[in-house]
Amino acid sequence: MWPRATFLKWWGGLLVCLLTASGCGVKSDPYGQQVKRVEDYSVNGKQHLSQGDLKRAGRDFHRALDLSRGVDYQRGVAAQLNNLGAVALEQGDLKKARQLFTQAWEVNRDSGHWADAATNQANLATVAMKEGRPDQAAQHLALAEDAARRSEAKGALVLVWSQLAGLALDQNDPARARTYLEQAQALNQPDLKGALHYGWGRLFLLQGNTAEALRHLTLALEADKAALDLPAMAADLFLLGQTYQRRAEFDQAFTHYARAFEVYAALKKTAGAQKCRERLREVNIQGRLGRPLERFEEHPLFTPAKKTPPENP
Q1: Cβ pair 2, 167 in contact under 8 A
Q2: Tell me, what's the pLDDT at 1?
Q3: Contact call for residues 57 and 66 (beta carbons, < 8 A)
Q4: Which residue of 41, 92, 133, 233 lies most exposed, with the fewest beta carbons within 10 A?
Q5: By percentage, how much of the chain surpasses pLDDT 70?
Q6: How far is CA 139 from CA 71, 121, 126, in A?
Q7: What is the per-residue DSSP string for 119-165?
Q8: Distance in angstroms (rounded) separating the CA atoms of residues 165 and 168
Q9: CB under 8 Å to 93, separation ≥6 — which residues?
Q10: pLDDT in tens, 197-256
Q11: What is the C-alpha to C-alpha distance for residues 8 and 180, in angstroms, rounded to an integer?
């Protein structure tokens, strides 16, 4: 259950570093125009990434990286290295993702861009968790927390603390998770409500308080829908399904697993869709629902189209 998505930017979900013209002080000058082109490619790349189109996302991030390097725009270089790391992570290439996030961290550290550096370390923690190395993930998150404190950016701290809460829950330590969630909540960052409510939902589900888990997860889904954070929406729906399953409300569990399946399928996330498919089979039996499963079992994600044989000359 770790974590919902890769950090692409601190505000608005999961991070592709998007650098707005106003935030970067871009003016009508040749250099500023190049920075604006970097921003445009970043926006396009994020959109393609959110739609599961990794090829186009990678293309746009590479173009933004080349432009950034060509005009010595170091913050842009780091942002696009990070974004390409997110693409590699989605492709399952953990080694490449780790290399790219590390390169981004080094550029941001040397440039003193500490909020962005915190993002890079948070993403390295995600890689470590996927590699089954929670101790190394904790080390990366300690560096992320230190960088976030240096930046004095509340959003950076909220997301690092949310991820630390997730790590604590993975390690079955609800008390530590609650401490991080309370610290994050105290900073009152409305744009990050989805991540916080998801964390609270996980905590209450672990403690067996399914009513509070449902309340927080429903709020997480609302916030993530508003931000159109599709990977986070899929995670919210899946955990809602688990919560309803725990309550033996199998009809609701089936519905939410099915909705999560559709989002994962739209993102071409086979592993997430497969988890949903397994749960759909499970609750169909547990609840004696008798629901048809063909649309999940025979989905094109699991049955690739056959290649058309060449015509005889």
Answers
A1: yes
A2: 52
A3: no
A4: 92
A5: 88
A6: 34, 9, 11
A7: HHHHHHHHHHHHTT-HHHHHHHHHHHHHHHHHHT-HHHHHHHHHHHH
A8: 5
A9: none
A10: 999 999 999 999 999 999 999 999 999 999 888 999 999 999 999 999 999 999 999 999
A11: 21
